[in-house]
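Retro notes (design track)

What went well: tokenization of the new backbones is finally stable.
What didn't: we kept losing track of which sequence belonged to which structure.
Fix going forward: every design gets posted as structure first, then sequence, in one message. First example under the new rule, 585 residues:
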């Protein structure tokens, strides 16, 4: 697929053409023709060197337009600066040094980058005094050097770089500063994103591979018409498309909230420069890159203030964030703490280990999207309680987001507690306990073949959908999440499970078939949301109903841990269930 401009014709149909793409290589390609959207689109889109003056003019023009004309973008360029920034001066001979800037207002850039295998220069308690006086140019890696060149070109004299502005051997400083990182990116005049650099050895300002440069060819049309066409490969650049050509930064968890919160970002990808702010997204040829969005978290929160379900935005954030990579698994909650801090005023709720207390029952309905050989064992380090999505590597929500299938809770929160380590209230969790009042039943879980330990079944009905949180194993008379060194054996064992809630289509309610049957028992208390009249609803009454059931492992006589989530089309498991208070850690 290539993008193509046909300056002399704007009404050409898409065509399959034989095109010489350079280097003596001809190929059949599908070409999309479209009109040039505005005067900012250039017919000769790219330059061989990113440091070409025309590329600098592109960035400067976008900055000027954003600062002066974008209604959705913040107009305040002078903001509260981070505790420390790097002072870089304005010219090549100016001294670079760490500049303490507490309570100081100014204009600065921020760098979003991958540390990678080649660790960058770091500030520590031992070298802080020396680096406050001077940071030698030759001690900086290529990414840092190029970021400084870009800042100087834009007239910015300060830049915030995490490894040089947070004391890396001071736990208290790291906790305090990591909790403020979201604000640092949000207040930055511009964020420079090193999308294509796997580490500091891959420079930002370098020659592009010729495969990304445009090619010009003549298109022969019927009736002897000839049209000059300028085409380029579709880079498939996207902040959510690490399989395209955005580069390694798109796969990093820390970089997610940096992109989410930044007011303006200059993406330096393998194929193109991309400008992204809260109003527009534009590549250097003037077009909007593939699948890129222009709405950061602050703008999303502003636009969703009128909706009754802003928590579903949080579900999207969790799904994207948890699919990304972390060097240290214990950073899972700290790496999202800036986004959580911004989200709290909208939800007006307490934040507990990645979930929100006000919407806790629905927030518990996450699943591990990985299956088959992709299912992993449980991490040895404690990251979060088992009921939190942060306790596993990857999670997503499959509760309805359209409003057509409203969620109704059938469990209530009796108590919830989390112990936080350090100074960041949205960061590391050392312990968590959740007490739910819910209908408690039992289900048999089966694993016939431990060499394929991701294959589990519930009871004897293959239609029941079970999403294990990770590989499971039999331990101490019950089933638990398996560690990397645990021996895997076949098992078949009954396990407790609790009914969290259900979704039911609006159409069935309008047709008078809304029906959730919960069997009353001498110890059971029907939830006020249930509309029960019989013990066994007919299939047509529940044809568009989904029940969410948390499957539990037994730790002791009064404590459980989460093992996974089941989706049921009926609630027959709970026809004789008793409502109890269940303690989950």
């Amino acid at each position: 697929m290539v993008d193509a401009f046909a300056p002399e014709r704007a009404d050409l149909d898409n065509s399959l053409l034989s095109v010489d793409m350079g280097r003596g290589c001809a190929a059949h390609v599908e070409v999309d023709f479209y009109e040039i959207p505005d005067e900012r689109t250039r017919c000769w889109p790219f330059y061989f060197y990113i440091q070409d003056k025309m590329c600098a003019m592109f960035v400067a023009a976008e900055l000027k337009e954003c600062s002066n004309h974008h209604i959705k973008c913040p107009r305040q360029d002078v903001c509260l600066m981070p505790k420390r920034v790097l002072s870089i001066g304005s010219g090549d001979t100016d001294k670079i040094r760490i500049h303490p800037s507490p309570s100081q207002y100014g204009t600065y850039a921020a760098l979003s980058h991958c540390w990678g295998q080649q660790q960058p220069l770091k500030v520590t308690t031992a070298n802080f005094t020396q680096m406050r006086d001077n940071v030698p140019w030759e001690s900086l890696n290529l990414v840092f050097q190029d970021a400084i060149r870009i800042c100087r070109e834009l007239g910015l004299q300060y830049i915030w770089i995490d490894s040089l502005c947070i004391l890396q051997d001071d736990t208290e400083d790291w906790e305090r500063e990591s909790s403020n990182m979201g604000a640092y990116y949000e207040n930055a005049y511009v964020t420079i994103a090193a999308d294509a650099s796997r580490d500091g050895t891959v420079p930002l300002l370098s020659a592009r591979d010729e495969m990304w440069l445009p090619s010009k060819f003549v298109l022969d049309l019927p009736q002897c018409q000839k049209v000059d066409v300028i085409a380029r490969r579709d880079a498939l650049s996207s902040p959510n498309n690490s399989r395209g050509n955005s580069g390694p930064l798109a796969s990093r968890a820390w970089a997610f909230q940096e992109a989410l919160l930044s007011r303006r970002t200059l993406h330096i990808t393998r194929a193109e420069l991309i400008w992204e702010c809260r109003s527009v997204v534009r590549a250097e040829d003037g077009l909007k890159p593939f699948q890129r969005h222009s709405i950061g978290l602050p703008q999303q929160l502003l636009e969703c203030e009128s909706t009754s379900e802003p928590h579903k935005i949080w579900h999207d954030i969790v799904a994207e964030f948890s699919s990304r990579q972390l060097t240290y698994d214990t950073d899972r909650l700290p790496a999202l703490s800036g986004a959580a801090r911004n989200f709290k005023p909208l939800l007006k709720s307490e934040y507990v280990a990645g979930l929100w207390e006000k919407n806790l029952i629905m927030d518990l309905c996450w699943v591990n999207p990985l299956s088959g050989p992709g299912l992993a064992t449980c991490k040895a380090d404690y990251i979060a309680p088992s009921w939190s999505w942060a306790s596993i590597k990857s999670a997503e929500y499959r509760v309805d987001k359209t409003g057509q299938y409203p969620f109704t809770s059938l469990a209530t929160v009796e108590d919830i507690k989390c112990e936080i380590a350090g100074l960041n209230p949205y960061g590391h969790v050392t312990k968590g306990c959740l007490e739910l009042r819910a209908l408690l039943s039992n289900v048999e879980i089966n694993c016939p073949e431990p060499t394929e330990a991701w294959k589990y079944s519930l009871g004897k009905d293959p239609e029941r959908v079970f999403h294990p949180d990770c590989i499971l194993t039999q331990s101490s008379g019950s089933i638990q999440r398996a560690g990397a060194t645990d021996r895997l054996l076949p098992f078949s064992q009954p396990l407790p499970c609790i009914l969290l809630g259900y979704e039911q289509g609006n159409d069935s309610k309008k047709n008078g078939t809304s029906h959730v049957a919960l069997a009353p028992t001498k110890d059971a208390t029907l939830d006020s949301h249930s509309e029960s009249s019989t013990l066994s609803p007919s299939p047509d009454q529940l044809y568009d109903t989904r029940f969410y059931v948390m499957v539990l492992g037994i730790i002791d006589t009064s404590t459980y841990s989460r093992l996974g989530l089941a989706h049921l089309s009926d609630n027959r498991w709970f026809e004789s269930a008793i409502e109890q208070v269940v303690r989950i850690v």
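Added context from the reviewer: The chain has a mean pLDDT of 80.
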